[in-house]
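Practice problem 4.
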């Protein structure tokens, strides 16, 4: 799946089939479904999950909590807009094997 295809899937009612839980959580975040995205990502581990978790808390406005998760993801607090960061995360996840 390409980044453009993933972005286009936001017009649908359900996430694309066969995507990882990480991408599913990010898809829900892109739809404005913060609670669903957070529920999906909160029990996953690894730097990708931490990055999405950080993004969600940044979106929520909880910068302190976001900072914790950015450190877990080994990422700096971004200067990019939330939309730009969402795209960066999606692109990185889509490149994973």
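Answer key:
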């Amino acid at each position: 799946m390409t980044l453009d295809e993933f972005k286009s899937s936001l017009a649908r009612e359900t996430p694309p089939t066969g995507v990882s839980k990480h991408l599913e959580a990010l898809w829900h975040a892109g739809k404005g479904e913060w609670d669903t995205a957070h529920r999906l990502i909160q029990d996953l581990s690894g730097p990708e999950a931490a990055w999405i978790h950080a993004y969600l808390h940044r979106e929520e406005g909880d910068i302190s909590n976001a900072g914790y998760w950015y450190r877990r993801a080994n990422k700096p607090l971004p200067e990019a807009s939330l939309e730009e960061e969402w795209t960066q995360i999606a692109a990185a996840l889509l490149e994973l094997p």
